[in-house]
Amino acid sequence: MVSDARLARIRARSEQQGVRAVLLAAGDDVIYALGGYTPMADERICFLVVGPQGAAMVVPGVNAHEAHELLDGGPVSVYDFQDADGGGDALEEALRTAAGPATGGRLLVSDAARHDHVRVIRQVLAPDGIGLASQVMRPLRMVKDADEVERLQVASDAADETFGCGVAAIRRGLSERELQDVMLDSFRRLGSDGLSFQGVAFGAHTAAPHHHADETPVTEGALWFDIGCRKNGYCSDLTRPVYVGTPDPEFLTVHQIVLEARMAGEAAARSGNPASAVDRAARAVIDRAGYGEYFVHRTGHGIGVSVHEPPFMMEGDETVLEPGMSFSIEPGIYLPGRFGVRIEDIAVVTDGPARILSRLSREPVIID
Amino acid sequence: MPTDSRLIRIQDRVAADGVRAVLLSPGDDVLYTLGFTPPGDERCCFLVIGADRAALVVPGVNAHDADVHLAGFPVTIFDYADDEGPDAALEHALARACGQSSGGRILVSDAARHDHVLAVQRALAPEAIDLASLIMRPLRMVKDAEEIERLRRSSDAADATFQAGVAAIACGVRERDVHDAMLQNFRRVGSDGESSQLIAFGPNSAAPHHRPDDTPIGQGPMWLDLGCRKNGYCSDLTRMVYRGEPDAFYREIHAIVWEARQAGEQAARPGNPASAVDRAARAVIEKAGYGQYFVHRTGHGIGVAGHEAPFMMEGDETILEPGMTFSIEPGIYLPGRFGVRIEDIAVVTDGPAEILSKLPPDPVVVPV
Predict the structure, then answer these.
(1) pLDDT tens track for B299-331
(2) Which domains does chain B possess?
(3) Chain A from 228 to 267: CB within 8 A of any B CB
(4) Which DSSP symbol is given to A212?
(5) Chain B: nearest CA to A84, how far in angstroms?
(6) Residue B106 predicted with pLDDT over 80
(7) A90 to chain B, closest Cα gap in Å
(8) How far does A163 lie from chain B, in Å, by closest CA?
(9) How far A262 CA sits from the closest chain B CA (Å)?
(10) Angle formed by the axes of helices B175-188 and A176-189, to 10°?
(11) Which residues pair with A326 in a beta bridge?
(12) How far apart are CA A248 and CA A222, in angstroms?
C-alpha cells in the first residue's frame, strides 16, 4: 500500500535542494507520503525520515504494532522506542538508514511539527540547519494526480449527501448542536476517516464566518452549513446557505452577489493564472456591489490530505495555477448583527474550465 | 467568563525569570490561561504575555469570536487580514505586552507549529527562543480545587459513556458500532466536542492503541479506552469487558494488572517522584513474569490536555505535590492473544490519592 513513487519524488526534490533528509511529522505530510496512513500524533516523537538511501519511520512503542503491520516488507523501515528511552536513539538510527552515516547537513522538518520535537531534532541530530519541509512537500502536495482527485471527489460526495441529511433534519426548535449531531452521524455512516467538521450557524450567528455551533434553536432566518470530512485520506469542504421561512429581500440580494462572486472565482481558476487572481475576481464582484468591507476573509485555500493547505486564494499568493491543483472558492458577505452568506465549492484546475466537485445546486435552499 | 488570576501568575513568572515574553499557541496553553482558545490552524495565532500586559494575535476570520469571549478581559486583540500576514500584528502585540523593553528570550508553546515558531523568529528577531513549558509546566501541573472539580465532572462523563459502550455490545456488533455509541453518549453528556473512544476486541486488544475497525465482537476479552474534554478538562479511562465467561488465565492476567494499578496508586504520594509510580506498577508485572509485555509508560499527567506533564516513567523525577493529576494505566499485552489495561486518573492529596472513576476495576462480563 505504501507508494514508492511518492517517496521517490520527495527524495528527488530534496536532493535537488541539497538537503540531507526530510523529517515528516505524523499527520498530513505522512498521510501524503505513505498514501493514506499516519501513526497517531501526540506529544511523543513520531517522524517519517526520507533521505537519499531510504525511508524510516520513528514511532513510539505504543503505536509500533500498527506501523509494523502496515509498513514491514515495504520501502519504509520502522524504528520504535520505549517511552522511558525517548525517541533520540531511534531518530539517529532512522536518519542513518535514510541518509547514511555522515553528520551535519541541512534537514527539513514538517511545517506542522511541534516546537518541542523540532528542538529534539536539533539536539539529537545536530544538523547544520533546519528548514521547513514545505520547501520540498508544497509543490508535490499541491498538484494532485488522478487517484488523488478521485479521492477528493469521493470525500465531496460524502459532504453532498451529509448536507442533504442536515437540510432534511431542519425543524424549528432544533438547536445548532442537534443539527451538527445529525451531520456527524451521516459522515460516520458514510465512512469518513474520523476527521470531520460540521459547522452550523443560525440567524445573527451566520455573520461570524467561523461560528461554533451551540444550543441556539433554529427559528426563522438565515442559516449556513459548512461541512467536510476526510475519507481515504482526502478532505472535503462545502458551504451552502439555507433560509428558514420567507427570505428577507436583502438575504436574496446578498446571496445573488455572493453567487456571482463564487462564479467569477471559478472563471479565474484557470491554468496559468496566479492564485491571487481567483481572489481578485471574486472580491471585485463584492466590492462593486458595495459590500467589500463585509467580505472579511481570503477567497479560498488549497485542499488535499489537509483541509487547508497551499495555495491560498488571496492577495500575495502568486502560485501559478496548474492542472491538478485543488482548492476552495468561498466568498462571503457578513453583516454583523444580521446575517451572513457564504457559498463554498472545491475546484480542480484542468486544461480547460475548472472542475467543481460538489454536485449540489448553488441556489438558496428555502425551507418553509 | 474567564478570570485573570492565571494570566497574573504567568506574568509574575515572566518578570521573575527575566523573560521578554511568552507566546502561547491556540490549544491547551491558551485554554488553560483564558478558559477559551481560538481554533488552531495553519494561520499564525498567539497569546503574547509580557510582564505587565497581554495581547492576542488572531487571524481576522476568528477576531469576532475572540472579541466576544474576551470582553472585559485584560487582553488586547490584534487581528490581521489573511493577505497581510501576521508579522505586523505580532510586533504590535509584543510592544503592547512588554513595551519598549527589548532583549531577553521569548518562550513559545511546546506544541506550536514549526512554521509559526519561524514566523516569531522572523517578525520579532528575539535573542533566543525557548519552550514555554519552562513557565507553563509548573503552573499547569498543579491543579486548584476548581480544576479538580472539572476533572471529576469529566470523569463522570467517561464513567457514564463506558456504561453506554457496554450496553451497545451485542450479537453482530462491530468495534466501530461500540465506538459510535460512546461518541454519541459523550456528545449527549456535554463534552466540548473533543472526545476519544477506543475499543479493541480479542487479539486487537494486544495492540495498546488499536483503532476501532469493522472487527465483529465475538466471545472474548476487549478493552474500552475513552475520554473527553468537558468544560475544558479531560478524562481518560480504560476498563475491560469480557463477552462470555472469562477463563482462568484471563482472570490471572487481569488480577496482575489490577495489582499493578493499585501499587501505582500507593506510590502516588506527595514527595515521591513521578518515576516511583511507574516503578511500583512495573515491579508487580515484572515479578509475575510479564515485564516484557508491559510496553508503555505507566501514565501521563492530565488537565486541559489529555496528555501532559508529569509522565509516570523512568527518568521523570518531578516530585509529586497535592493537586497533581495523572493516569495510572499499567497493561499486559500478549501478541496474537489479548491485552489487559486498567486506567484510572489519580489526584495527589496530602493523604492517599483520590481516584476519579467510580467504576469497579473488575472486567464487566457480558453474557453471550
Answers:
(1) 999 999 999 999 999 999 999 999 999 999 999
(2) 5-141 (3.40.350.10), 145-366 (3.90.230.10)
(3) none
(4) P
(5) 5
(6) yes
(7) 16
(8) 19
(9) 18
(10) 170
(11) A348
(12) 9
Candidate from A110, A211, A315 with C-beta closest to B114: A110
Residues 159-218 of A with CB under 8 A from B: 177, 181, 184-185, 188, 207-212
Query: Can you say whether residue B129 is alpha, beta or left, with left for phi > 0 and alpha for psi between -120 and 50 degrees?
Result: beta
Q: Does A283 touch chain B (CB under 8 A)?
A: no
Q: What CATH number does residue A18 fall under? A: 3.40.350.10
Collapse the DSSP code of A24 into the 3-class scheme (helix H, G, I; strand E, B; otherwise coil) and give the result: strand
Contact B83 A315 (CB under 8 A): yes
Domain boundary among A111, A141, A171: A141
Which residue range is the domain that position A281 belongs to? 146-367
CB-CB under 8 Å, B60 with A84? no
Nearest-angstrom CA–CA distance, A25 and A4: 18
Residues A15 and A151 both lie in one domain: no
Q: By C-alpha distance, which of B178, B233, B173, B238 is closest to B209?
A: B238
Contact B207 A65 (CB under 8 A): yes
Does ipTM surpass 0.95 in this model? no
Helix axes A4-16, A134-142, angle to 10 degrees: 130
Only one residue has cell 493577505, namely B83
pLDDT tens column, A219-267: 999 999 999 999 999 999 999 999 999 999 999 999 999 999 999 999 9
DSSP state at residue B362: S
Quote the CA–CA distance of A237 and A210 in Å, as a whole number: 13
- What lies within 8 Å, CB to CB, of B305 at 6+ separation is A43, B28, B234
Residues of B whose CB is below 8 A from A177: 187
Residue B335 CB coordination number (10 Å): 12
Q: Is B24 helix (H, G, I), strand (E, B) or coil?
A: strand
Query: Which residues have a Cβ under 8 Å from the Cβ of B149 and sit 6 or more positions away?
Result: none
Interface test with A, best of B82, B308, B312, B333 (most A CBs within 10 A): B82
